[in-house]
């Protein structure tokens, strides 16, 4: 298994962050490497969606965990491996910790960790900053 964890602390409340995180259809506004998303239904455990990364093949993904308002995880199947990305929103001394954990497991873990895992993990800091900014905007409009 290959695992990478990234975390950042913010003053944005969990509820504002969750509202942005749970709206899968709007992820391309946060993730600059996502070309498009097609979602079947509302966000909940078991929801399936197609994600097209820029320069990559269309991926089939399923929501693996949906524990409002703290944990969202999705699972992407790749040939002979799977990648789970878990986003946790944790209260921390009047602040919120955003923790993102990427796990790749299966027979071809070494290959997929080099091809997908490292690239995905390198973009987490910038992606998290855009996520926080979008959640701030969301809170300002309510």
């Amino acid at each position: 298994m290959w695992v990478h964890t990234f975390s950042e602390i913010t003053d944005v409340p969990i509820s504002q962050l969750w509202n942005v995180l749970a709206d899968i259809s709007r992820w391309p506004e946060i993730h600059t490497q996502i070309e498009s998303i097609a979602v079947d239904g509302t966000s909940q455990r078991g929801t399936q969606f197609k994600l097209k990364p820029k320069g990559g093949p269309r991926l089939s993904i399923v929501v693996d965990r949906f524990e409002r308002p703290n944990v969202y995880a999705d699972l992407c199947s790749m040939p002979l491996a799977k990648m789970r990305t878990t986003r946790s929103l944790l209260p921390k001394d009047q602040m919120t910790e955003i923790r993102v954990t990427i796990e790749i497991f299966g027979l071809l873990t070494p290959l997929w960790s080099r091809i997908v895992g490292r690239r995905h993990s390198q973009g987490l800091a910038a992606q998290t900053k855009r996520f926080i900014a979008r959640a701030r905007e969301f809170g300002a409009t309510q």
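Strands lie at 2-10, 34-40, 48-53, 59-67, 71-78, 81-92, 95-105. The CA atoms of residues 47 and 63 lie 5 Å apart.
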